[in-house]
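Q: Hi! First time doing this. I have a protein sequence and I read that you can turn it into a structure. Is that right? Here it is:
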Amino acid sequence: MKKNIIIFGSGNHSKVVLDVINEKKDLNLLSIINPNNFNNFKKIYKNKKGNLYGHIAIGSNYLRKKVYNQLSKNFPKLKFLTLKSKTTIISKGTEIGD
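A: Yes, that's right. Below is the predicted 3D structure, encoded as structure tokens:
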């Protein structure tokens, strides 16, 4: 079963994230949400049955953390996914977390 995912962020980084989602067969993109306006997401969140996943596609660490805190507080059932392209090269000394 495919995981339903929302991209939060509509800038250049979201385009890269969209490419990663498109290469994965187990993800179904529901929407790309501008984090300055959560109204569309509120409707999706309210009406969605089952699990809903999100990925914050914002390059700025400060803004990404701010959006994460807002989403976690207001939408507690939203789960976040870490996305990695199959072509990504990651250093052996790097740790990737939530």
